[in-house]
Amino acid sequence: MKANTVFLRSNIKVEPLWNQWYAWPYMLQPATAGCLTSKLHLRILESFLQAPHLHKAAAKNPAMRGGPFMDFSGSIDLVSKHVDKTKTDLGDLIALCDSIKEVNQLLEDEAKGFSIEELYEKVPENLKGFVEIGYDLNHHASIRFIEPLLYNSSLYRPELQSISLSFIHADDRPFVLSTPRFPLEGELHLPLAYNDPLVDRLFKMRYEAGSTDIIEEITERFDLSAQENELLKSFFVEQKEQKATPLPESGVRVDYYGHATILIQTDEISIMTDPVIAYDFEGASPRYTYENLPEKLDYVVLTHNHQDHVMFETLLQIRHKIGTILVPKNNGGSLQDPSMKLLLNAVGFNNVIELDELEDFAVPGGRILGLPFFGEHGDLHIKSKLAFFFELQGKKILCAADSNNIEPKMYEHVHGMVGEIDHIFIGMECKGAPMSWLYGPLYSKPVERKMDQSRRLNGSDYERALGIVNQFNPSNVYVYAMGMEPWLTYISSIEYEAESLPIIESNKLMATCKHRGIEVRRLNGVERIDIHEKQQWSQAS
Predict the structure, then answer these.
(1) For residue 247, is it within any domain?
(2) What is the three-class DSSP state of 105?
(3) What is the spatial distance between Cα 79 and Cα 76, in angstroms, rounded to a whole number?
(4) C-alpha dihedral, 91 to 93 to 95 to 101, nearest 10°
């Protein structure tokens, strides 16, 4: 067949999967993957098999969205087989989870402040060499994982990675974190590791025409049926409008893509924060999409390791555009704080730099500074989180993401280093999920409900957000990272009403800012902000 050139269509949805579950960071590092498999995925699957009608009813209830309920109406036998296959194929990871629990109990029972060298002999064989045991200064013992060894062992399972391709015609998608993805009609599942060069070649075709030879290559490599081959062909189109955003001629321009994703550009560079990008389809509401991205993203910065901020669905599709990724430096081996750099390296991002708190990174025309990020992590010791301060062409911008201003003195100290800040982006999701919603499977023992409810994944409320405004005296404030966009419910499960606490609290902040003469907006959907001497707003088309 003669090779022609084609583009990947704009309305092709991509879902990265791991063992058929929607992939997010903690599912790929071996230790956390074992805990999620054993204490979350299998429990959801087995609960569904015991009472499928209850799961189906809960999945249809908007109030239960985001809970551990499978949204699945297919064959029960398919679920049963997946349970059996998981227990067989992932037995080593399940055993790893069991061993972590065993060692934690061992330390609780026997590590009383005296030498623990003899306890190494009691570490289960599958953990030996992968962990170090040590005390903190209060004589509390814990294990430290040697993460690079885990990634270089048979426990790291890239063969469980795959990618699902399908058309998308509406924003409404089922919540993805509680239901494995079984192939449906109109979906093509490719057993493709994320670091495979084919991933970049395929997704580059969103923006640049590529040879139709890729269709034949995929068909042969994955032994596609005639029907699957026809489906694959339908994902491509011969002509496509190009909408790439050029650099501004002067000044600093900010494009809001939704949630915590902003594109900051000068005439020299493009920087994007926490990329989560919407798809384009007929009838879609106004938005920036993949097709609007600049030809190159010189820097991508990731604020923290939650699934709505490190989004593989987006990152894999833009990897070929990214120059450098900046991530927070982590604690170094704690179960709840896996290294973002090691994880991204493992899945094919080789241009990752760790930034520590208050560490400068020089860029053309300015700098990027990592600022401490308190809160929103259930009071766990997690260091892999940074707010980012950008100083570009004399303009100062703070992207605080989900920072919770629980200790105002910290910002007072930061003010002494950076001075006043012109533009502040602050998240106000001040009624987050209980801590166990995200971290529960990592615990060796169940978390008490009252304790769990007291340690929610909260961002700043009115008083705390106002404290940041008071400290830095900005000319412009933007409430963002609220998960308000209609294309985000599949990952955030958030649907606000007028009485929702984050709406009430952010309304109060906006009212106060307006009273003081501060330009303020709660961002939702799409915005363009041109930063010159006087603020200019525009609703992007």
Answers:
(1) no
(2) helix
(3) 5
(4) -150
Q: Are 533 and 266 in contact (CB under 8 A)?
A: no
Is beta strand 527-531 parallel, antiparallel or unpaired with respect to 519-522? unpaired
Shared-domain flag, residues 471 and 381: yes
CA gyration radius, the chain: 24
Half-sphere exposure (Cβ direction) of 372: Cα atoms closer than 13 Å: 17
Q: Do 446 and 464 belong together in one domain?
A: yes
State the CB neighbour count (10 A cutoff) for residue 75: 10
Question: Which tokens sit at 251?
Answer: 């000044």
**pLDDT at 62 (0 to 100):** 87
Q: Is residue 364 domain-shared with residue 479, that is, in the same domain?
A: yes
Dihedrals phi, psi of 92, to nearest 5 degrees: -70, -35
**Do residue 102 and residue 78 come from a single domain?**
no
The Cα–Cα gap between 323 and 341 comes to 15
CB atoms within 10 A of CB 255: 22
**Residue 396 DSSP symbol:** E
CB 281 within 8 A of CB 9: no
pLDDT (tens digit, 9 = 90+) per residue, 340-394? 999 999 999 999 999 999 999 999 999 999 999 999 999 999 999 999 999 999 9
For residue 377, give Cα distances in angstroms to 24, 143, 161, 373.
Answer: 16, 20, 27, 10
Are 495 and 171 within 8 A, CB to CB?
Answer: no
Question: Does some domain include residue 125?
Answer: yes
Determine, yes or no, domain membership for 244.
no
Distance between CA atoms of residues 407 and 484, nearest Å: 27
Asked whether residue 340 is assigned to any structural domain, the reply reads yes
